[in-house]
Please model this.
Amino acid sequence: MDLLEIFKDSEDIIFVPAKTVVIREGDEGNKMYVVMDGEVSISIKDRVIATAGDGEIVGEMALISPDLRSATVTATADSHLAVIDQASFDSLLNHVPEFTMHVMDVLADRLKAAFEMIEES
Model:
């Protein structure tokens, strides 16, 4: 799924300088992001479990579950992120079936990475 194409004309694209924390583990969340360009790291308890680059999503769990943020996302390079709020997320789930499968694939991959991190501890 080409999220870069879907969000290329979005009015909700923000610039995030390198080393900026976008999402903090334990905080409340109501947005997710598409990395339009740049790169972010995803960490749990200060251990990086994954990185996300152009066209990848982060923060999706906050729009699926009301729990606190489960990971920290930090820009590792200057980045542009498309912001997706709950209403936009719900609309995508209802009108773009491929998006639903894409989010499920991302969740599965991140869950595997978290389990691997636990096993290595």
